[in-house]
Amino acid sequence: MEPAGSPRRSGRPAGSPPNREAILEAARRQFTERGYDSATIRGIAAGAGVDPALVHHYFGTKEDLFTAALQLPTSPRQVLEDVLPGDPDGLGERLVRRFFEYWSADGGAVGDSVVGLLRSAMTHDDAARTVREFVSREALGRIAEALDMPQPHLRAALAGSQLIGLALARFVIRVEPIASMDVATLVGCYAPTLQRYLTGPLPGDLDPRPRQSGPGSGPR
After folding, report:
1. Three-point CA angle 153, 156, 161, nearest 5°
2. For residue 178, what is the enclosing H or E element?
3. Is 35 left (phi over 0), alpha (psi -120 to 50) or beta?
4. Of 6, 95, 186, 211, which one has the fewest beta carbons inside 10 Å?
5. What stretch of H or E contains 20?
6. Whether residue 28 is found in the same domain as residue 110
7. What is the DSSP letter of 10?
8. Which domain holds residue 81?
9. How far apart are CA 160 and CA 95, in angstroms?
10. Would the pTM count as exceeding 0.90?
11. C-alpha distances out from residue 123 to 126, 127, 128, 154, Å
């Protein structure tokens, strides 16, 4: 960290590793206290005693900083960038397959990190709020933006609920036979349900058929 009273500079100063760790610690503290949506790069920089430009230099966006602070291997943007493009009718299967690829990355180390995050969210309100806001904005929000369907945010949330439930059943609670079932079978079980949520009809969708008005238009 730079001595008190010295001019604060953008870029990469001497002693950058301590600065980087100070940013990560300040980020964890602000994400916990304020949640993902209310935390800001400027506030995190102030908590670490550095210029906001240095936060951007090390971590880029708030999403990437959150990913680094929680020791996640990659951001939702990177996970979804090769899933969302393509035929909408295959999106459910692509999401489930990518879910398992992500979980098994680095020899399972990725999955271990996410299990710890889920357990924390299940037992601490602040952690649950932060994870909820992050997932809603950076993962489910991106899925909703890619859907050219009615009620896109509901559809994304329903699909996300299936994947979160799958993660809890297979990796946290370890419900059998889901915990030991082969991936191909689970993809076959879950993909159609995700696809129905993403592109199938839902209650509340606008009825495309014209409605009659006037006498005799009611139920017969």
Report:
1. 125
2. none
3. left
4. 211
5. helix 16-38
6. no
7. S
8. 76-199
9. 10
10. no
11. 9, 8, 8, 26
